[in-house]
Design brief:
mainly beta, globular
């Protein structure tokens, strides 16, 4: 069984999300519904998806190899790694 590891860095409001023994697959999409109720502000232009979990981000930094991938009519940027989400700036950083 895979265990999810959450590390909270209180001084930076960051959350590290990764599996202990493997990298996670992340899909990044443009947020077409930004500014609508429950879909972030107009500045939350990115959707970061991992499985059934979604983060709305203002900024995305990808520090691992990435590729495009079509999912139905939509296209994603896809990469594998660990994500750090900075809640104070709504920035997702995907790294090794």
């Amino acid at each position: 069984m895979h265990l999810m590891k959450f590390v909270y860095a209180l001084n930076t409001n960051a959350i590290l999300i990764s599996l202990l023994d493997q990298m996670l697959k992340y899909r990044i999409r443009f947020n077409k519904s930004r500014g609508m109720p429950g879909r972030g502000t107009q500045e939350h232009v990115w959707r970061v998806l991992q499985g059934n979990t979604e983060w709305l981000a203002r900024h995305v930094i990808i520090e691992v190899p990435s590729r495009s991938e079509q999912e139905g009519p939509d296209w994603n940027m896809v990469c594998e790694g660990s994500m750090i989400f900075f809640e104070d700036t709504d920035t997702a950083v995907i790294t090794k």
